[in-house]
Amino acid sequence: MTLVEKVGQTAQRGTSSRSKTLSEDLKQAVREGRVGSVINVTKAEFVKELQEIAVKESPQGIPLIFARDVIHGYKTIFPIPLGQAATWDASIIEQGSRIAAVEANTMGIRWTFAPMLDISRDPRWGRIAESAGEDPYLTTVLSKAYTRGFQTSDLSNPTSMAACAKHFVGYGAAEGGRDYNTAVIDNALLHNVYLKPFKGAVEEGIATFMTSFNELNGIPASAHAYAIKQTLKEQWKFDGFVVSDWNSVTEMIAHGYCKDEKEAALRAAQASLDMEMMSEAYEKNLITLIKEGKFTEAALDKMVASILRIKLKLGLFEDTSFNEDTSILYAEEHLKAAQRAALESVVLLKNKKQILPIKASSKILITGPMADAPLDQMGTWSFDGDASKTITPVDAFRQDNSIEHQFIPGLHFSRDSVTNAFPAVIAAAKKSDVIFFFGGEEAILSGEAHSRADIRLPGKQEALLQQLSKTGKPIVLIIMAGRPIDLSNILSDVDAIMMAWHPGTMGGPALKDLLMGEAVPSGRLPVSWPKTVGQVPIHYNHKNTGRPASKESFVHINDIPVGAWQSSLGNDSHYLDAGFEPLYPFGFGLQYGSVEYTDFKLSANEMGMQDSVHASITVTNRGSYTEQETIQLYMQDEFASLTRPVRELINFEKIVLQPGASKTISFTITKEDLKFYHNGKWITEAGTFNFWISQNAQSGTPEKLTLSE
Ligand code: BGC
Fold it and tell me: Element (H or E) spanning 239, and its range?
């Protein structure tokens, strides 16, 4: 290969995700061997045309790899990733990504830019929607499931897609939740939290990585040699390739890290970034840099080899054809899987006086801007989904003649502030037995570049809810949103709350089944849900302080006596007006019935470094519904040479329990579960540990274990 052809392999070219044309310039670049991958080709015939040019006319006949953001479905849209994480179910995620790959293959796409593995502790950040939430363990389990689903065990399987672990690394720690912003993460936190899911994806054989837009500790991620070269490639032995994010190489100039594109190319290449998405710093400068002796051809060869290795594994050198049969799009089994995912992603947050499920004989008023919002229901990053295929809650109720209901939207989109229709909604509410208010955010209010400083329901939704509450009729608030919502103004106005995220194509039937008791809610929060935006960032696995907050010492702002002496009140870590706990903790989710946890025990209270103990609990379904229960194992290392979080999830299991049934669940604990990263290595220190098996990150009573050398 000539130098031009080698650099060509490192170039990803393309257009916007909406482009309907194929440019002559792109065709010519492919013909000359100056392109390795193409992003956002939106027609199968374009894929075929370009691939034919690459294979038959380019100097070496090297096939292209076609890439696209197939994030939570291609045509059949599954819940947004944050919603899928709320299922705590790896099989759902694996199945969803398998279906996405099979569908996307009809257009010849063999590389997806998913999963996003950024730990997200700040719901202001729009991209929390695309994440699996705040927990490194849960995100790691799900990162493996996504990888298996997209790639299968054999990348050369024609419906396999190379997956891409993104964004490497620290993107979720953006200052103030503002997208693209600075991340400052110390080395221990980086390994103990932010890198973990990425390491899991490497262990599962993920083919590619994408660097992030942010700078990490002063160095933009696309030139972060410690992250890409030392950690990912040398330490973890990752042998796939790393692509930049869109223009993130040349954006290093705006970051103030490189003075021009030439320097940006050099820094990125030195950090071992293999492919450049969209910007052309490599194409324009790498050869000169090699000729000037600043970069070596041998290093370029390594970059090219890593890209060719994945093309080889995908079987592209043997066969570039793909199954164009579009009749499999929206196949019955795909829709069924999407409905199951939507159903299991829903988290029941409040259910006053067990108002849910609703009796089939009730007269229902359906209202709110998300009740019939086919496009918004698909959520962020659903480029290819067809809104006309979405089944909204209104569609689902209309398809069922047995339920007496009426639909008046009241507001037409989430930011709508026109209140003309309010009187009609109130009048209808008065004649109904129950109100289903479908509120939330339009899809465009979360996702990339869509951070919000105020995370309450936008527009006049709160006003409509407050007016409805005056009718005295029970209100069920169903939220479709890309993030936890600040409910402080309306919490007491509603009787029940269901978080449905943006549930995708089949959200309507799933929600109807849950509301009417044909199915039961089983989702659990993958993020802490703040009482108010002022509490964020908030996450359960925080460190302790020297003055841990406690219910006993907490004094609410309104209870402070006028003229109180300066230091007379509970001097610990809390907000006077919001306390120290979230509204709903990580792992939380109510049920229609009730499940009891008894007999929590450890098989031993002492353990040596080479031993293991079993933590077990008996779980009994005391209600009359068949429940799905997610049993969560948490630990705390009480004292360590590096302070440890107050609780950390280290395992979980989701089980099905028939009414009256009991099951004993046992988890094995070894020193592997107790380790942490400190001073450049993973260690487990002797000492005392607390364990909880509980329904969420705030419940349960701990058992103690002493670990000795
Ligand atoms: C996003 C990536 C995405 C890429 C390609 C960027 O703006 O940050 O997550 O994969 O665009 O569409």
Answer: none
Integer Cα distance of 435 and 406 in angstroms? 10
Residue found by looking up tokens 């694996």 in the block: 94
Dihedral, 507, 510, 515, 519 alpha carbons, nearest 10 = -160
For ligand 1, atom 2, name the residue with the nearest CA. Answer: 245
**Measuring CA to CA, how many Å separate 562 from each of 414, 552, 555, 557, 568?**
41, 21, 13, 11, 12
pLDDT tens digit sequence for 346-374:
999 999 999 999 999 999 999 999 999 99
| Ligand 1 environment, Cβ below 6 A | 69, 113, 166, 245-246, 448
Does 69-313 match 340-515 in CATH topology? no
Q: Do residues 286 and 7 touch, judged by C-beta distance below 8 A? A: yes
pLDDT above 80: residue 230: yes
Q: Which of 8-22, 412-426, 561-575 has the lowest mean pLDDT?
A: 561-575
State which fold the 69-313 domain adopts. TIM Barrel (3.20.20)
From the list 71, 163, 168, the residue with the least C-alpha distance to 119 is 168
Question: What residue segments make up the domains of the chain, in order of their start?
Answer: 1-68, 69-313, 340-515, 549-581, 595-708
The CA distance from 365 to 426, in Å, is 10
**What's the confidence (pLDDT) of residue 15?**
80
pLDDT band per the 50, 70, 90 thresholds, residue 110: very high
Query: Which ligand 1 atom lies nearest to the CA of residue 17?
Result: 12
- So what's the pLDDT on residue 568? 61
Mean pLDDT of 580-597: 97
Contacts of 56 (CB under 8 A, 6+ apart): none
Q: How many residues does the chain have?
A: 709
Is the CB of residue 224 less than 8 Å from the CB of residue 272?
A: no
Which of 19, 70, 245, 451 to mutate to test ligand 1, by most ligand atoms within 8 A of the CB atom? 245
**Nearest Cα residue to atom 6 of ligand 1:** 246
Residue 164 in tokens: 């891409």
Tokens of 635: 């630990």
Q: Which residues, other chains included, contact 333 with Cβ-Cβ below 8 Å and sequence gap of 6+?
A: none
160-201 tens-digit pLDDT = 999 999 999 999 999 999 999 999 999 999 999 999 999 999
What are the backbone dihedrals phi and psi of residue 348, each rounded to the nearest 5 degrees, phi first? Answer: -85, 115
Mean pLDDT computed over every residue of the chain: 97
Q: What percentage of the chain reaches a pLDDT higher than 70? A: 100
Instruction: Quote the CA–CA distance of 227 and 170 in Å, as a whole number.
Output: 10
Q: Whose CA is nearest to atom 7 of ligand 1?
A: 246
Classify domain 595-708 at the CATH class level.
Answer: mainly beta
Per-residue pLDDT reduced to its tens digit, 327-341 = 999 999 999 999 999
245 is catalytic: yes
The 10s digit of each residue's pLDDT in 205-215 is 999 999 999 99
CA dist 604 → 225, 601, 607, 611, 670 (Å): 44, 8, 7, 10, 12
Tokens (6 digits) for 399: 């398809």
Contact partners, residue 283, CB within 8 Å, separation at least 6: 7, 8, 10, 11, 34, 276
- Euclidean distance between CA atoms 89 and 70, whole angstroms: 20
pLDDT in tens, 59-83: 999 999 999 999 999 999 999 999 9
CA atoms within 13 A on the CB side of 16: 3
Mutate which of 166, 448, 451 to test ligand 1's pocket (most atoms within 8 Å of Cβ)? 448
Predicted TM-score (pTM) of the model is: 0.98
- Is residue 160 a contact partner of residue 208, using CB atoms and an 8 Å limit? no
Contact 123, 527 (CB under 8 A): yes
CATH superfamily placement of domain 340-515: Glycoside hydrolase family 3 C-terminal domain (3.40.50.1700)
Cβ atoms of residues 12 and 311 within 8 Å? no
Q: What is the pLDDT of residue 566?
A: 76
